[in-house]
Design brief:
Number of strands: 10
CATH topology of the largest domain: Spore Coat Polysaccharide Biosynthesis Protein SpsA, Chain A
Largest sheet: 10 strands, mixed
Oligomer: single chain
Structural class: alpha/beta
Number of domains: 2
Order of helices and strands: EHEHEHEEHEHHEEHHEHHHE
Length: 327
């Protein structure tokens, strides 16, 4: 039998309640605010904080070292992506639970103590997410059910609206769901040893959906816990203009890999075809913008990017285990 490349065993038992893992890329001020909110609002539990910096060029590393010397900082020499960076920290995490927390989130209450207590009292749940609010305190749409191939098709053609997800969510109480989003993704330590680490073929996006599917396939349960919340500033890292083209490219690769992993060959063909049709339509739209003498507004208007996407072949990345520098 071929060994599972995602399998993992912790070398030592846990020594604290919670490991808080944050991946950072050029969001110095935002990640500092996130760390401040963690330390201001987390009490009643033992925790550690680990930040994985994906080769930021904005002084993030120095600012974190100066402002939060007790934070474990992993400094990468390249941008390894979300899954690989999180896996680096998971391997050395010491908590009974691990939370993968986006750098553009803020705690406004002692949510982690509530989550730890709830999971201690409800051992049937292996993954949990609290409610996610936007900066104005309004609940954000969250997928609590698995995406279907039809959902993917609607997203490709721009006919899938997050507001529909919020309406479908309704008035939830703590309980079992199929999947939760990744901005505050809490995982029981033992789950990594049965399900494995994050799939590093995802550079960006789909990794939490994939992890939830793998966990559920082994009989583990997932909880949505709206009794507490975190605030999410939404896309502060992925919408940086200088990396927007790479984000679009990597999102496309991630989607294709996810489709290949979970959907039928027929749906794979249909979804790839839909993508190419939208890229082709986008090329003509960008040409029209150029002919009208208007400058492209963003990476989404780039003809060269759309041509690259149209002709792109996406080989599966090989999983790797980088040797990080820790501080």
């Amino acid at each position: 039998m071929t060994p599972n490349p995602l399998s993992f065993q912790f070398p030592e038992p846990p020594t604290c309640d919670l490991s808080i893992i944050i991946v950072n890329f050029n969001t110095r001020d935002i990640v500092l605010d996130c760390l401040k909110s963690i330390h201001a609002h987390t009490e009643g539990i033992s925790f550690e904080t680990l930040v994985v910096d994906n080769d930021s060029a904005d002084g993030s590393q120095q600012a974190i070292k100066g402002g939060f010397p007790k934070v474990t900082l992993i400094e990468n020499k390249d941008n390894l992506g979300f899954s690989s960076a999180n896996n680096q920290a998971i391997r050395i995490a010491r908590g009974r639970y691990t939370v993968l927390l986006n750098s553009d989130t803020l705690l406004t209450q002692n949510c982690f103590a509530k989550i730890v207590r709830y999971l201690d009292d409800h051992p049937q749940f292996a993954i949990l997410s609290p409610e996610i609010l936007d900066i104005n305190g309004t609940p954000c749409p969250m997928r609590l059910w698995e995406d279907t191939a039809w959902d993917a098709a609607l997203k490709i053609i721009g006919r899938y609206h997050p507001a529909h997800e919020l309406k479908k969510m309704g008035a939830w109480e703590p309980g079992e769901v199929q999947v939760v989003g990744g901005s505050c993704f809490v995982i029981r330590r033992q789950l990594f040893e049965s399900t494995g680490l994050l799939d590093e073929n995802y550079f960006l996006y789909n990794e939490e959906d994939d992890f939830c599917r793998r966990a559920r396939s082994l009989g583990h349960k997932i909880c949505y816990f709206p009794e507490t919340h975190v605030k999410h500033l939404l896309g502060q890292s992925t919408h940086q203009p200088e990396i927007r083209a790479k984000v679009i490219l990597e999102t496309y690769k991630s989607n294709l890999y996810f489709y290949r992993k979970y959907y039928s060959r027929t749906w794979n063909f249909l979804l790839r075809s839909l993508y190419r049709l939208t890229f082709l339509a986008g090329i003509f739209q960008s040409l029209w913008i150029k002919m009208k003498g208007r400058a492209p507004l963003a990476a989404e208007d780039s003809i060269s990017l759309k041509l690259k996407l149209f002709f792109l072949k996406t080989p599966t990345r090989e999983n790797h285990s980088p040797n990080p520098k820790t501080n």
